[in-house]
Amino acid sequence: MNPTLTDTGLYRLMTWLSPAFPVGAYAYSHGIEKAVETGQVSDEASLLEWVGGIIEFGAGKVDATLFAHAWRGEDVAEFARAFRGTAELALETQQQGEAFAKSVQGVEIAPACYPVAVARAAAIAEVPLAEALVAYLQAFASNLVSAGVRLIPLGQLAGQRVLDRLRETVLTAAVAAQTRPLVDIGGAAIAVDLTSIQHETQYTRMFRS
Hints:
By secondary structure, the protein is mostly helical. The protein has helices spanning about 5-15, 30-35, 45-55, 60-70, 75-80, 85-105, 115-125, 130-150, 155-165, 165-175, 190-200.
């Protein structure tokens, strides 16, 4: 199956990955809250590096790979549930996936981790893999940048500069995921996992991860 992106498919994709879609993405920082508290993320440059690392080496790489295999109809749901470094990150992807499955209109999918759920919906709706991957990773990056903007804090223009500079990272990650075998799914964002672990016991928290 190699569908062409139609206007209907584009509309659905934009709706599903909009900040207004009720998956609760705004409530998760993916460990950035702890990284800000410890000074690892403190300005525009460090936010760019941190989020870029997540996309290239961490959950962005893992999710995009799972997305591609799920879109092709492979059964990766159980594998995806096991492939998170911390309890908070596992909860983050599972809860968003369940909320997505409950809220999506026009297709019937079972609850699953977030990238698997979105990929299944995209495949059923005949949204092409390449475009769906770019949109998914851009939405993920956008949510992380939004968390950083609120936490550091930064201005909205700084956040938009970070997103613009992440463009090539996102596009490259989307292309690579389309041909990556599952055996090469592993990530290497250890600092992110450590901040997520520490966030579980952080005294003052705005975010759930």
